[in-house]
Design a protein that fits this description.
The protein is mainly α and 79 residues long. It has one domain. The protein is 58% helix and 0% strand.
Amino acid sequence: MTQWILSVGLSFSSLLVNLLLKFIPEKFFPEMGDEDEEDVIAAKKDYANLMKFRKTKELSGSMRQGNWIKNKEGGSFKS
């Protein structure tokens, strides 16, 4: 029982800390660094290329394998 209380208490306290951090302005947190404009453009091009490739694929493995996988008569795998 003690373990449950500790785990729920710690989880709840992390929610409270996160809630408090939402109200602190970003000016109090350091900025880690700037990215070069060339890197941002290259990343956008890579992402667009990946999205084009993804749209050419079917989204579901069951759609690709639908012609080969068949259920037994009656819709059950049991014999």
